[in-house]
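Why do we care about 3D structure at all? Because function follows from shape, and shape follows, mostly, from sequence. That is the central idea of this module. The next example makes it concrete: a single protein chain, its amino acid sequence, and then its structure expressed as C-alpha cells.
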Amino acid sequence: MKTMVVLFGRNVSIESSKAADQAMEKLTLPLLVEMELYFSCLIRKAVRFGEDACGTTFTEAGPKLRVGFRPVQTKNCSISALSSPVVPLDDLPLVKPEAFVPKWLKIDYDKRGWSGEFGLV
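And the structure:
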C-alpha cells in the first residue's frame, strides 16, 4: 500500500509491504505507528508499534493504520541510557514541528513482528 498523510501541515509518504498489508487486514483494531525523533546528546530515530506507540496524536492513514510523529528529549545527556529499554522521555516542544516531520515512512511485517523506518529527506 502507498498512501499520504498530513502531519503538522507536512505531507508524509507511507509505504507498507505486502506482508504488512496482509497482517493489518487481520487486526481487529487499527495499528498504531509512531515515528519518534529523540534529541539528547545525539539524535536517534525509532518507529514504535502498538502499545509501544504512546504520547502522540494519531492520524488515519488507512482503515487499519494510524500514524503519528513524536519529537522527544531527555532531561540530561547520558550515552549509557541510550541503550536502556526504558529512558524517561519528555515531549520536545518545537516552535516549528513541520520542519522536523519525516518525509516518508516504510512499514514491514515478518516472523519477528512489525518493523519500520522513516526519513527526513
